[in-house]
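Teaching assistant here, posting this on the class forum so everyone can see the example we discussed in section. The complex has two components, and the goal was to see what a joint structure prediction looks like when all of them are supplied at once.
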Amino acid sequence: MATNTQQIGSGSTGSRLRGQAFKIVLWLCITASVVLLCLLLVETLRDGIPGLTGTLFANFPSFNPAKAGLQSALMGTLWLMAVVIVFIVPVGVGTAIYLEEYADRNRWWNRLIEVNIQNLAAVPSIVYGILGLAFLVRGPASLGRTVLAGGLTLGLLVLPVVIITGREAIRAVPPSIREGSMALGATQWQTIWKQVLPASIPGMATGVILAISRAIGETAPLILVGAATFVAFNPSGLDSAFTALPLQIFNWLSQPQDEFKTLAAAGIIVLLVMLAGMNGIAVWLRNRYEQKW
Amino acid sequence: MNLSRFLITVVATATVAVGVTACGGSDTSSSASTDAGAAVSGSIAIDGSSTVFPFAQAAAEEFQTKNPDAKVTVGESGTGGGFEKFCNGEIQIADASRSIKDEEIALCKKGSIKYSEVQIANDGIAIVTNKDLKITCMTTDQLKALWNKTSTVSNYKQLDPSFPDVKVSLFGPGTDSGTFDFFTDEINGEKGDTRKDYQPTEDDNVTVQGVSGEKGGLGYFGLSYYADNTDKLNLVAVNDGSGCVVPSDATVQDGSYKPLSRPLFMYINEADFTPAVKAFMGYVVDNADAIAKNAKIVAMTPAQQTEAKAALSKAEAGASGATTTTG
């Protein structure tokens, strides 16, 4: 007994060295990623800040770099995000509740659904683009090349993330809370609505925001779904043609003139600010509604 | 803890977001209604070749400033991708850097799409090398020896003893590009026939960077990309048996820069030849020179422009014929 505690406390010189070495390796890892990120940020900021002008937000895309702006792309992205939120929140949260609270894991179909959702999270985004093109733009839904089709495609793409994080959040609610609620005579519905859901809000909100953050940067599915690259008007509704920020940035990057590179970097900054803002909201929501049991 | 308070927060946020986007929407309509006049309205969907994209974008932009109620969208999913959408009736105008292929004609027949081809500009492929790689002219045979599928040329000296003793490092467009189809067909004799050990990219800027960064860099892309990078690249003349010809607007227009010059087209769906599309195409053909200049591609000659006008009025006749038979 006494020798045991001694070993845990100090250890041999060799294992202490190994411990030190491991710590150094970890330090190197984190330094590498942080340095890379900083380099990218500094580079983008240096290239992009001169491009962050009023014209960038006030104007539509143009062949003339001095007149080019990204208003239609920014508005297109906001519209897409609105569609994505309206679509993924009820569907994602609903699925998560079903799988955690109602589904009987002894039934094979419930297990099948679980495995499928986990696999879907790893499917490349271009495949969702093909799905969106075949079933939403053409085929059964025939929505055309519209904001609605684009938003639903992006929603499908990020839905697994929402479901998985939603389930984690629900699972984190201690069973004692449910049991207590049930013991006081609440129905399952009352338990979920009054106890489980409010307690899992921080986790779910974080999941939704992370999902939107992923959706906001996607380009490939949008190209397939038929978002045009040059759109000089803001979306006027769900059935409107649209373009989005990543598409506009990609297009500017592939232009030969150097001025467009500045605009592209400025577009990246706009996108980054939106992302940082959303992550900020996620952190705030988490802290605001977090509960300690 | 309090779910309803959370829901209120979410709804409030969503309302603000929708309000912002709605403001953006009304913004366009109000600015649109200020200048009506004889302007046309309606939407025009264009998609296709990325070579034609700058032209179509420049045209759409100018057209919309004159017709604020017209809503023109331009995509760049490639000539093949454009024809697929076109023959499916999803777009009214297909940009193409080549004529329509037999498979695509069949596809359009299946979708019962009647179309007309209108030339709108010219395109030339430029062969460029690193500034320090002094090669002024290459024959088509040398280009083929360098680029064909079985090529093992690794030093420019192997092509011609007078060429510099420098290791070959090649750049070019990827297989999705119309420029790639065009180059491999003309130089190597078959579409898609190319050596594999080059750096393929859909972004011609990568080619510019690669060629200017490697001592033995050689690559090909649209002539307009050279115009923007004259200080970084060296332009190579091409000799197809009748002497070295340097690519330029004039040699591309008259086709004397052989075999790497070609016409660019817009295909219009005759069944969907709306007043907006009609006005747009009329504008494009009438102002082809100015648009080409803005888009930095080679404009049509007056003769080509006359021909394009004729093609357009023929399409108009065909479209009205189509409506009389159906209606």
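For the discussion questions: Chain B has two domains: 40-122+262-326, 123-261. The two ends of chain B are 65 Å apart (CA to CA). Think about how each of these relates to the inputs above.
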